[in-house]
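Worked example 2:
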Amino acid sequence: MPNHMRINIILLFLLPLLAVGAGINGTWHLIVQRGDEPLHARVDFTTDGKRLTGSAFAGTERELRFSGEFADGAVLFNAAYRNGGNAGTYSGRVDGDHITGTFRKGDDAFAWTARRLNTADGPAQTHVFDPVQFHRFFASTIAPALRIQPGDTIRTWTVDSSGRDAKGTARSPAGNPQTGPFYVENALPGDTLAITFRRVRLNRDTARSGVWLGPSTVRPLYFRDTKYDPSFRGEWKLDRDQGYALLANPTPRLKNFRVKTRPIVGCVAVAPPPGESFPTYWPGSFGGNMDYNGLQEGVTVYLPVYVPGALLFVGDGHAAQGDGELNGDALETSLDLEFTVNVVRGQGISGPRMENAEWVMASGISNSLNEALQAATTSLARWVAHEYKLNPNETAIVLGTSVRFDVAEVVDPLVHIVAKLHKDVLATLKE
């Protein structure tokens, strides 16, 4: 028998076996149809003969492990939580890049589907986005304004917290109107969205601020007894060339008072979990109205992904802001922005984190200063321990000697504290 015929015969036997392995290996977007709140997860499947193994990331603390069989286009596998607990059984059939089947746990049964994800990212693109609609709440029900790929860059602009653009024209009702949301392809629950702000620039010469100290920032008797002048105006002129702000109508004692401009993005958010909605003055694990004066040009913000596409919002520009935003409003203005968006696949976090050239920073957002500090310290401890493979004692030594805290926000519905470590400290931990 000629050699080429032998090879063809061998291939006829091997191709079905190769197809079995290739039929499900890879990364998939799994959806369990649980009524109006489906469960989304990134799933990785691997086969060894008929044996099927895999893992899923459905949220920050919900890693699943799969074990079962894949044969003749049919799948059957059990899911277990990280602690070994039963997470249900999946059965279904593979049809090319799609799977359909039934998920069962106890007496409950739900339909499930999966589609294969194309994880090969193409060339990064830059999108120039000119917003025409702005949003005053964070929710997964808002239709995307633009769909982008991981690695893409967006150039856009924001209105100020009262809804006015670079020319002072009202474009939206007041209340921290947001630009976006931006849908990031293949971002799934259990992932982390990384937003690097490459340009955060003032685009006009005016701003406004509050002129009282917020009641949550001073003792009650001070707030009760202080008599503010109702005619005092918090209008500011911005000298963009020199980089400072001064009151438009100062009192004699403030005629020489100047503030260095440090533009920040007050709001950076992803959509909160399905079924939840928050006004855009609210902060939370999804980011939101964080009002942190460290959120400047050059910072990367990390946010947990709760829904497919993440749905990224940006807005609420500040020309300058002291720690805590004590006046209730910082120097509110509009901004020109340029930022790059990436997806950290399969690595979920519980709340906002940030880093720049000097610091790694973890947010704590809660009902009180004490609770917010605890949340920030916990997040930073977990981050450093994971990244540098530190045991609990080593983590305690590093944070106990070197942590710094910023009071980011105290006048919004929740308090925001930032715990941070200088990268010079972290450099000593590398092996």
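The longest helix spans residues 3-22. The radius of gyration is 26 Å.
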